[in-house]
Specification:
- Helix 2 crosses helix 6 and helix 3 packs across helix 6.
- This protein has an 8-stranded mixed beta sheet. A 4-stranded antiparallel beta sheet has the order 6-11-8-9, with no helix packed on it.
- The protein has one domain: Jelly Rolls (Sandwich), CATH 2.60.120.330.
- The longest helix is centred in the middle third of the chain and has 27 residues.
- Helices cover 28% and strands 19% of the residues.
- It contains 8 helices and 14 strands.
- The radius of gyration is 19 Å and the shape is globular.
- With 321 residues, the chain is an alpha+beta fold.
Length: 321
């Protein structure tokens, strides 16, 4: 049996503005979303220099002392922001904690923003380390990939036969998280059985845009249960559908389980951007995604309530909740 391929899609026609090119790209993306649930994108417009800066700054942060990193430590009160120490997560709650450390950055809001003042769920000030250039680099990158994620939603909408701007007002103050990740060298003997860099899981939100280094380790589970290595493609993003968009499309699009199996003897860095909708966005079956033969499978739910239901199991085991 031949291995399924993760398609590589050039987004340049999506940005060029031509109707024919835009529809062609949307069709390619839609085919991937209905199939393996993963795809690479090139021609995305995020500057290579900015991507390199993000990886350089992330590596510098993770090389700092545990005491220094802990000054910006994650907790429930930080609104899903800040530093998560090694083994601080269990993406597969049935297995040992993940062998990785992370740093989460959310939408940057001013201290006097009404959602900050009113302590709205998942709204908080970002926890910035005392490191030169960290905040500026990360905010520039956050804004670039947020823009790219919104452009992908135009393609989703086009493919699904709804107005291209359908998602625009549902992603303009998103519960989006930029996540820096560091996987240490995998020890010859793991502390606990079944321990991985990141356990088998699906992503919670709408779409994930992942930049990786050349080390590799990402694996995607095919429909017949086999694990497919996602190779490193210089300059490309690995994109995948999350559970929220799968729910929104009434399972028309597929959220695919994946994991990270870090190669032995190599450190691994990656930078993921998880685009979740606005807190008050109502996630309910999209027009055209249900029929008499395929009724809506899920009740409507707010974006923030859905994220709450998914985050709790990840952190409860580690005690970070």
């Amino acid at each position: 049996m031949s291995e399924p391929a993760i398609p590589v899609i050039d987004l340049k026609p999506l940005f060029a503005g031509g109707e024919e090119g835009r529809k062609a790209v949307a069709s390619q993306i839609g085919e991937a979303c209905r199939g393996i649930g993963f795809f690479y994108v090139t021609g995305h417009g995020v500057p290579a220099e900015l991507r390199e800066d993000v990886f350089d700054v992330a590596a510098k942060f993770f090389s700092a002392s545990e005491e220094e990193k802990a000054k910006a430590k994650f907790s429930v009160a930080t609104g899903n922001r800040g530093f998560i120490p090694m083994k601080g997560e269990s993406l597969d709650p049935t297995k040992a904690p993940d062998l990785k450390e992370a740093f989460n950055i959310g939408l940057e809001l001013a201290p006097d923003d009404p959602e900050i003042v009113n302590e709205t769920k998942f709204r908080a000030l970002n926890r910035w380390p005392e490191m030169y250039g960290f905040r500026e680099t990360m905010l520039a990158y956050y804004n670039a990939v947020w823009k790219l994620g919104c452009k992908l939603h135009e393609a989703f909408a086009t493919d699904l036969g709804i107005e291209a701007d359908f998602f625009e007002d549902k992603m303009d103050r998103p519960l989006a998280t930029l996540r820096l990740l560091h996987y240490p060298e995998r020890p010859a003997a793991l502390d606990e059985e079944g321990q991985l860099g990141a356990g088998e899981h699906t992503d919670y939100g709408c779409v994930t845009l992942l930049a990786t280094d050349e080390v590799g380790g990402l694996e995607v589970r095919t429909r017949d249960g086999r694990w497919l290595a996602a190779p490193f493609i210089p300059g490309a993003y690995v994109c995948n559908i999350g559970d929220c968009l799968m729910r929104w499309t009434n399972d028309t699009y597929v959220s695919t389980p994946h994991r990270v199996v870090s190669p032995p003897g190599r450190e691994r860095y990656s930078v993921a951007f998880f685009l979740d909708p606005n807190p008050d966005a109502m996630v309910e079956c999209l027009p055209g995604c249900a029929s008499d033969h395929n009724p809506a499978k899920y009740p409507p739910i707010r974006g923030d309530d859905y994220l709450t239901s998914r985050l709790n199991p990840t952190y409860e085991k580690s005690g970070l909740m």
